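ARCHIVE CARD
Drawer: 12
Card no.: 0347
Subject: one protein chain, sequence and derived structure
Cross-reference: see card 0346
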Amino acid sequence: MFTATYAIETDVGLERAAQVLAGEQSSGTFLPVPGESDRLRERHGAQVVAVTDLGEVEPSLPNRHRPDRVRAGEIEIEFPLENVHDDLATLWTVVGGNLFELRELFACRLTDLRLPDELVRGFPGPGFGLEETRHLVGRPDGVLVGTIVKPNVGLDEEGFRQVVRQLGGSGIDLIKDDELMTDPAYLPLETRVRVVREELGDAADRTGHRTMYAFNITGDLAGLQRRHDIVVNGGGNCVMLTVPAMGLPALQWLRSFASVPIHAHRAGLAASMRHPSLGISYTAWQIFARLAGADHLHASGLGSKFYERDEEVVHNVTALLQPLGSTRRPLPTLSSGQNVYAPRPTWDALGTTDLMMLAGGGVMAHPESPEAGVRSLRQAWDAAIAGTDLQTAAQDLADHGDTALLAAARQFDTRAHA
C-alpha cells in the first residue's frame, strides 16, 4: 500500500467526501456496478485512513452549486500497490486524476505522497544526482554556482560564442540554456553543442576546471533521443528537459538512455501548483520527478522574482534533500533573481551547501565581468557560512584589492534602486 494526502473542502461531510474520492480513484464509481464484489473492493479499493477537520471556510473553487460555507480538512487515502504496477503515468492518474473534478469537492490538492521502498525500486530514479554531479564538475563541497545564457533568445552563433567564452574562464560550475531556447533555425542545437565544445574545451585546458553545460532538448517526443545523441556525440555533458511541457513519462524515457545528467526545469508547473486549494504541491511533484530520473531539480529561490514565499522554497529544498528509498539525492537548484544577497538567508534557513545557485543577472549583470559575478557569489556564500555581514566582507575584500563582492553588493542593492 502507499498513501496520498489531500487538502479538501466539501459540503457533504469530510468522511463522505473522502470515501467518494477513494472510490473514484480505485474500484468504485457513483453507483454499484455488476462485478464490484466484496473481494474486488478488498483487493483493489482505496481506503480512507485519516480525516482531520480544519473548520468551516468559504468555497475556494467554482462548482455546480456554491454554498456559503464548506468544511475544510486533510485526508489520507491508502491505495493498493497492485493498482499501480510500477507505472509512472498510472501512479499519477491514481493520485491526481478525476478527483480534481468531483462535484463534492470545493478544493482538492495533493499535498504529499508516502511510497514504500518496494514501489520506489520499480522506477529509475536519478542517474547521477547531487554527488555524481559534484564529481563531474570537480566541486566536492560548497555550493555549486551556475548561470543561464542571456539574452535567453535571439543570439546568433557569434553572439552565443562570446557569452560562452566569457563564462568559460569564470570557474562556473554549470551553464544552461534558457527554457525558451530549444532548437531554433537561427541557433540550432547542433551549433550550440559545437560552440560549447570548442569554447569550454579551451577553457578547461587553461584552467583545469570542467564546466557542465545543460543543453535544452525539450521538443517533439519523437526527436528526444536524437537530440540527446546530438549533445552526447558532440561532447556535451548534460541535457535539460522542461518536465511540465514534456511530461513525466518523457523524463522517465529520457532517463532510460541518457548517459549524462538530466537538468529538470519546472517551467509551467505553477499552473497546477500555485493555487493553494487545487492541483499538486511541490512536495508531491518532486517525488514524481525523482522517480522519473531527474538529477537536478529547480526549486525556485529565496528572495526570488517569482511568487513562492521564502518559507515555501525552504520546504521545497528540504523535500528534495529527504531520502527517497535507495535512490540518489537530486541536486536542488535555486533560481530566479539570485544574487549576492541570497546566500545569507538561504544558509540561515537551510544550513546546507548541497545546492546549486543559478544566477542569470547575478552573474551576467555584474558590473566588472561574469567572472567577477561568479567569484562574488562564492564570496557571499563564504561570508554567510562564517556569519560575517555582507557589507563587512565586501569592504574587507576590497581593502585587499578584490572589489567583486563590493561591486555586486552595490549593483544588486534593491534599496539603491528603489
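Annotation on reverse: The chain has a mean pLDDT of 94. The longest strand covers residues 47-57.
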